[in-house]
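Chain A, query sequence.
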Amino acid sequence: MAEHTRTNEPTIVLKFGGSVLLDQRHLNLAVHEIYRWRRDGYRVVAVVSALQGETESLIHLNQCLAPGSTPTARASLVGLGELKSGALLGLLLDRAGVPARVLSPAALGLICQGDGLNADPIEIDTRLIELGLEHDGVVVVPGFVGIDTQGRTVTLGRGGSDSTAVFIAGKLGACRCRLIKDVDGLYEADPATHEQPDRYTTVSYDDALKSDGSIIQYKSINIARSFGVELELGRFNGTGPTIIGDRLTQKHAQTDRVKQLSVVICGLGTVGSGLVEQLAPLGRSFNIIGASCRTPEKHDSLVASTNEITTDSLALATGDADVLVELIGGIEPAKQIVETAIRHGKHVITANKALIAEHGQELHRLAEEHGVRLLYSASVGGGLPVLERLRDLDASSISGILNGTSQYVLSAIADGVPYAQAIEDAQRLGYAEADPSRDLDGRDALDKLRVIALQLGWAGFEIEPPACDPASIQPESAPHIQIAQISPLRASVQLEAVDAGSPLAGLGAADNLVQIHNADGSVVAVRGKGAGRWPTSESVLGDLLELSRDLGKQSNQDAPAGKEIAYA
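Chain A, predicted structure.
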């Protein structure tokens, strides 16, 4: 039946090298980049290298313990760095509410031949990758490591994670393969040691093989050519990577520059303090110049990160920042703060669903009048990128679970947890507020429906009051799941039974899922954690990174064009 079909999502392979993954904290850069592409509707295979310095440390350990060991014995130890970073990335994605599964090269049957320390990949079973992409949307694969035909561990040589990524992209038939580096592209000379070297916009395979090999592994270029895969080589959150493929080589003086944005944050609660921590490794892109909260003395540990903490949010709204992030919640004083910031030429990012549901249209008009952006992805679904996906789809109706708190409570009750204990556990885990009544009586989900309607440009639909009562969520409600439906004619929130085989029935605690029914009869399912510190702060950061990309592209377009040269 048409209602069970899915819109085909394109697949991108992302490779994260040690030059980007400087330490465990910088693994969050990979989380942000993966979430960026999930927001844009891509299935993602993430290939990771070891954290910077980890491989060298393991090589040194091998030399100390057994300098005369066989290549495969050495590979078993040296390859542990990638396995560790892959596992850590899986944990961080789970924390951020991004569904993902980690698959080892051995489980995938990544068969290689040749030297045990510089082997070449020859085969892989992609079925587990496809299954993971279909169910979760994200698969993490440790790079650099494979197995030989006898099942022994081998490695793919220096820079071997490039080869892993390109080989998987070729075998999957992925539409894109991007290598995330600490530079914004391939240059004719090292930009760290040469003054304004020209940057390649496109490079032929042959000319890429003439580079010094420090940025991209030669072996991976040959693998790409054998599959006809074009490689994108660029920076984290970049928009203009160098393209390596069967192309004319061209270079240009223009770069894919980072535009640093000054940011103020209103509200340092669970989400606000999480956002401050998320921004810490992103100093090139964002500079937090101030923050506000009711009790600044409780946040002394954040002073170094936020420059100044005040109780006066309106002062921040009239100050010099490029962006104001509103995380206070409620209608007032949030509305006054947001309006003031917009009138003073600031872009605004908010997670405030009640504010957008009630005043979104007028705030959009005000933002347009003043030439700034109003973004609010985190207002619906936390780490669930619903609003972003709706931008590219022709939705006719939407159904799903839109409240992580009620989902957690109902799931706990279904497992035999008493009602009061389920709420207490949800609060302890950060899924529920001190007063969870808006979540449990359906008002929170209804606000999200109204925000979705605003995103779709729907108007004139009938809004039914929530049909839920907190008292109705009791053990006898356990078979039911909170369902939200919206159409141009009707919007409602209610407890409703679903079939056991429905995707809505098999979710974990605090997970949300939205099924977007398109006009052509296809259905797109979007899943993720809908509540909690990290999923919500990840969504807010996603808006900040999107704004940074858009303003950066505009800045680069306005920059002097420079000289463009083409080589046959």
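The chain has 19 helices and 26 strands. The radius of gyration is 25 Å.
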